[in-house]
Design a protein that fits this description.
InterPro entries: Iojap/RsfS/C7orf30, NT_sf. It is found in: Cytoplasm. Belongs to the Iojap/RsfS family. It contains 6 helices and 5 strands. The chain is of the alpha+beta class. It has a single domain, classed as Beta Polymerase, domain 2 (2-Layer Sandwich), CATH 3.30.460.10. Strand 3 and strand 4 form a beta hairpin. The N and C termini lie far apart (about 60 Å).
Length: about 170
């Protein structure tokens, strides 16, 4: 019969072996391109498909889920989906796999969101973009230090509302 070594030293050695195995199979942060580079690729993909009023917001320090938000408008739901597909293909060509795409499977979508990890890409019909005014919301945070706390408190709720709109669900009040 063999006896298992439960000493702290043995547990540390086992943990180190597991961690080294996991880390060797995962992409290291050094492999992932800078957020600014990813944003530049996104803008290039949107420009290739004639995205309308493309804007990039630097939200580093304002939120913990993204470094940049890129906004673009399209003329129809097909144009929105084509722009999103172009962004995904551009990122894949550079070895970046987006976390997900929301709104591209809805028949008459008004908004497609591409999550490129450090860069969120919002592609909307002009009416939808005007209605939610996400650019104004996130710009207000960086421009108005006195309103920073109030705007930051509103941002997660506005973002959750926007995501639910994309998914077609409603938020109970």
């Amino acid at each position: 019969m063999t006896q298992k070594d439960n000493s702290p030293a043995a547990n540390d050695a086992a943990s180190a072996q597991i961690n080294s195995t996991v880390n060797s199979t995962a992409n290291s942060p050094a492999d992932y391109p800078e957020a600014q580079t990813v944003a530049d690729w996104v803008v290039a993909a949107l420009e290739d498909l004639k995205g309308i009023d493309i804007r990039v917001l630097d939200v580093r320090g304002l939120c913990n889920f993204a470094d940049f938000m890129v906004f673009s408008s399209g003329t129809s739901d097909r144009h929105l989906k084509s722009q999103a597909n172009s962004v995904v293909e551009q990122l894949k060509a550079h070895g970046v796999r987006p976390m997900g795409v929301e709104g591209d499977d809805v028949p008459s979508t008004e908004w497609v969101l591409v999550d490129a990890i450090d860069v969120l890409v919002h592609i909307m019909l002009p009416e939808t973009r005007d209605h939610y005014q996400l650019e104004k919301l996130w710009s207000a945070q960086s421009n108005q230090a006195s309103n920073k706390a109030a705007t930051a408190a509103d941002a997660p709720a506005a973002y959750a509302t926007a995501i639910d709109k994309i998914r077609g669900s409603s938020i109970p009040k």
